[in-house]
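WARN retry 2 of 3 for item q-0093 after timeout on previous attempt; input resubmitted unchanged.
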Amino acid sequence: MQVKKTLLCAVLLLQGVHAAAAPDFPAYSVTDLKALGIWPVVMNQKGEVVGLACCGRQSAGVQFYASAEVRDLGLPAGGYANFSPVAINDSGWIVGNARKPSLPGPNNEQFSDAALYDGGGWTVIDTSSLGHPTHVSGINNAGQVIGNTEHWPVLTRTPWLYEHGLVVQLTQASDSAASDISEGGQVGRQARHEVRARARGLQRAA
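OK item q-0093 returned
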């Protein structure tokens, strides 16, 4: 058939190209994380993976995969029932949203608190001065965390930044939200306008 001949010619041509100048393709391997009992959610540039327990692994704690091993990081202290990972930086710091079943929200949803795992333990980010509930959006390699506090029932959000134990309000409440943070500290918003807040240049109250 003509199709087979064309395909054969294409394969031979490709082989000829490889014979003339063989490129240096990277080697890849496949790891079945489900076989290790982890459902992957996010991954950093080092190949470290954060996820949830699955496939027979019984745990409500956060699952961390690195160096061919799975570690159970548990949950933040304070009666939280589960944790939803959002991002991990290249130092292995993890941010996400921790939920308590005792804090029902609108439509019987669970209110959440932002939480950070810095490799040594958990920190619940206190954004109570801005409102509740709060949700993490991301973290950069400098350890700067961004998120948004929601205001019910008007459905506005207040973007914030967390660094070195301090929470900084980035803008007034609006219908947009802080969505990402660059390595230089610029914060992007899900809106027509963009907030450029360089974290290290922000003035903080003593």
